[in-house]
Design goal:
α4 links the parallel β3 and β4. The protein is globular and about 55 Å long. Strands 3-4-2-1-5-6 form a six-stranded parallel sheet, sandwiched between helices. 44% of the residues lie in helices and 14% in strands. It has one domain: Decaprenyl diphosphate synthase-like (Undecaprenyl pyrophosphate synthetase), CATH 3.40.1180. With 241 residues, the chain is α/β, with parallel strands linked by helices. Bound molecules: 3-methylbut-3-enyl trihydrogen diphosphate (2 copies) and magnesium ion. One 3-methylbut-3-enyl trihydrogen diphosphate binds next to α1.
Length: 241
Amino acid sequence: MTLPQHIAIVMDGNGRWAEARGESRTVGHRAGVDAVRTCVRACAARNIGALTLFAFSSENWRRPEVEVAALMSLFVEALDRELEELQRNRVRLRFIGNRQTLAVRLQQRIAAAEAATADNDGLKLQVAVGYGGRWDLIEAARRIAARCASGALRTEEIDEASFAAELQLAGLPDPDLFVRTGGEHRISNFLLWNIAYAELHFTDRLWPDFGEPDLDAAIADFAGRERRFGRTGAQTRKGGA
Ligand code: IPE
Ligand code: IPE
Ligand code: MG
């Protein structure tokens, strides 16, 4: 079975999961952290190279202040609690997103966790916090423009490779499997550039309920797809001639 090299997941449905139980949305976000732990362990055990999780979008700042505050505290708490196990499993943790929008306390935890796990050779785990796909593209464009203005780069040298090298996921293969839980069929400003050719898998399962069988179902769905990258089916089956 062809395994995806890089899975990107929009972890959606925490609020509805909690509301269905008569609980506050925060309870759903807490349950969501448990699902993250399960998913990270499962990906590591299946030798998936990279996992990128959408935890908080640039648009999620529009939510009620109490929910945003609860999420930010939860991120700090989860980082403190999970770091030891991540180390044990040799997970390399990185954050993607606009860090300047985050509280200094969280920025510090993030920097410390990234430094502590930087040399780990296991699963490459990216957590997107304060991330937006359009923000990512604009930031890359700004850096490229600055290099052109300073004479370090000629405009003819701007190509897909040099552009991608400025994006948050630089150095990683593009996600080949994109998963969204929670029943919505949309991208919600996640990795706009990087998912150009990802296989899309949508499930109604709410994120706190997403477990190993759901991950395996997504992986099996991926394995059954014919990835043609513009070629014909016949070409693809011959080996992409
Ligand atoms: C995803 O769950 C987590 C975040 C966006 C932070 P939601 O909080 O969006 O849950 P629903 O979609 O309201 O159920
Ligand atoms: C997308 O979920 C962002 C995350 C899961 C972090 P949302 O719940 O914010 O998406 P929309 O607003 O329904 O598109
Ligand atoms: Mg949602």
